[in-house]
């Protein structure tokens, strides 16, 4: 009999653990309080929503966690009402403050729990209103991903984009954090400034954010501010009115074309300062007037901008107005260079091989061990774009029937960028203090790279991934003056 009882207890414990784990995976805050108001369950989504740890919440009274201010605490607005009436509150709008004075606003469903006819507890389910857009955005993004997978004839979305955040390849910590931040900010409406080196995938992130946002049904309109002359750029962005200049016609600008969508201003630091002032006025007033026009039109679009350099450096060098920077950079998103996420190189290599297999009708399986090692040791100044171009170039050189990319498929000019794999840039190990050994290795690496680049400091700094000023310091430090 005891064996049966023990088995039943074990089954109940197992079932209880399973239910708690399921509740912890639900993407909505769930909490349970006793009829006295003591919190006995608080899932992980509740932690995220309210910014508190469950160990600091469980076992405490709601009035201790949510201070009562003239009957406006959570206990009085929700739990007490359910206990007194014995009826659920559905989509109940509730505002309350945490102990740190942070205001929480929710639409909550609260239900009474009866056991053997007695009301014993109250359980609550309901999202934080300010996080609601995140759930909506994520759902929209997943739906668009399904739609694209079901329609393999085209890789382009109806809004003019090619990519979603799902398409970003990589599992490294830095790229994962960047994607996570992109998902968080996609559901809001604040302007975003993306910064990162050339070839890191800034527009991919911009398109991904657009497709994960509430603006996704609108158009994604992109313009490279460095590629268009100032005289044309102004009319392109703001639009023109008939008669504004000889041959001018009524033309909507990019702000109007991006209505209820996203306007992506790439290389914003290349926009002339005079034009930046006009852009700032539009962003401040939320209205645009075409060149030569008199009518002002309200704008309703999300602004995402991008720069290839540190935005603070752009402001310091007066390539970007400081007031425009603060208007555009409500949220900033840094895209890491490939040399800082080398653990993703193998994934990216295979991704591009698969891509060009489909395009060229080939069946290349992967890379040789030697070529993969070279890829992982190279610093990739052109980042992911350079890696893709290298893979495409190599695949064009492969013979019919070959199943593996190797060094002979890489064109000579690309091999030169990799350096001579037969030359060891490191010194042989010798006894001594670790600091002295590392200094000798650093000196040898810098000397080899300087020699390869004919003493060109700018190119050497770019290849080594250091600032030019930092390289000059090391050259002086090691006495590596070029003759």
Automatic annotation (TrEMBL):
> Which top-level group of life is the source organism from?
Bacteria
The secretion signal range is none
Q: Which InterPro entries match?
A: AAA+_ATPase, AAA_lid_NorR, Homeodomain-like_sf, HTH_Fis, P-loop_NTPase, PAS, PAS-like_dom_sf, PAS_4
Has UniProt tagged this entry with the keyword ATP-binding? yes
Tell me where in this chain the Sigma-54 factor interaction domain is found.
168-396
Q: Which GO terms describe its molecular function?
A: ATP binding; sequence-specific DNA binding
Coiled-coil region list: none
Keyword vocabulary terms for this entry:
ATP-binding, DNA-binding, Nucleotide-binding, Transcription, Transcription regulation
The PAS domain sits at: 15-60
**GO aspect biological process, one term:** regulation of DNA-templated transcription
Q: Does the keyword Nucleotide-binding apply?
A: yes
- Enumerate the Pfam families for this protein: AAA_lid_14 (PF25601), HTH_8 (PF02954), PAS_4 (PF08448), Sigma54_activat (PF00158)
Check the record and name the SMART domains matching this protein. AAA
The identity of this protein, by name, is Sigma-54-dependent Fis family transcriptional regulator
Question: What species was this sequence derived from?
Answer: Formimonas warabiya
* Source organism phylogeny: Bacteria, Bacillati, Bacillota, Clostridia, Eubacteriales
